[in-house]
Amino acid sequence: MYLVDSCTIISAFRPKESSFQESRDLLFGLPQFFITDYVLAEVVTILKFKVGLAAAQKALELLLYNKAVDLLKLTTEELADTVDLFSLHKKLSFVDASLIVMAKSRGLALISQDNALSKAFKHGGRPLGSAKSAA
Fold first, then answer.
1. In angstroms, how far is CA 71 from the centroid of its own chain?
2. What are phi and psi of 4, to 5 degrees?
3. Model's pTM, two decimal places?
4. What is 2-130's CATH number?
5. Which of 44, 101, 102, 103 could anchor a disulfide with 56, C-beta 3.0 to 4.6 Å?
6. In this model, does residue 7 exceed pLDDT 60?
7. Residue 127 pLDDT more than 60?
């Protein structure tokens, strides 16, 4: 199963994005995927202010009322791990840290068009260059 990040969803609703068609093909081609409540909040907020209310409402409708999309929430333990990971990374947002933690703890594949997030995920969530990431 797949956990999708905000960047991929936002790109699918912003025709000016260079990855617009790729994001749409990816997003609408998945038979089922997960998002988090943090991702939902980030997507609709960014779309509202960057594209407009209509785009935000369209995304909200797709993400909340589509049987192919399941909304996940962090457990108490995942939240604690997210706080720890967020504190370790200077360039990782709290939402991105939560996606790494959730994907790792639940065995989900993370779909992201955010290079920094993808790199951090591939390195187990550890900051690049840390002694543990080389092991």
1. 12
2. -105, 135
3. 0.85
4. 3.40.50.1010
5. 44
6. yes
7. no
Q: What is the CA radius of gyration of the chain?
A: 15
Question: What is the edge-to-edge ordering of all strands in the sheet holding 33-36?
Answer: 69-72, 33-36, 2-4, 109-111
Q: Helix, strand, or coil here: 69? A: strand
Nearest to 30 by CA among 109, 95, 103: 109
- Strands (E) located in the chain: 2-4, 33-36, 69-72, 109-111
Considering only 1-15, 28-42, 112-126, which range has the smallest mean pLDDT?
112-126
Ordered by start, the domain boundaries in the chain are 2-130
Token pair for 21: 């068609």
Which residue in this structure is represented by tokens 């933690």? 101
| Two structure tokens written together for 135 | 């092991």
Alpha-carbon span 117 to 108, nearest angstrom? 15
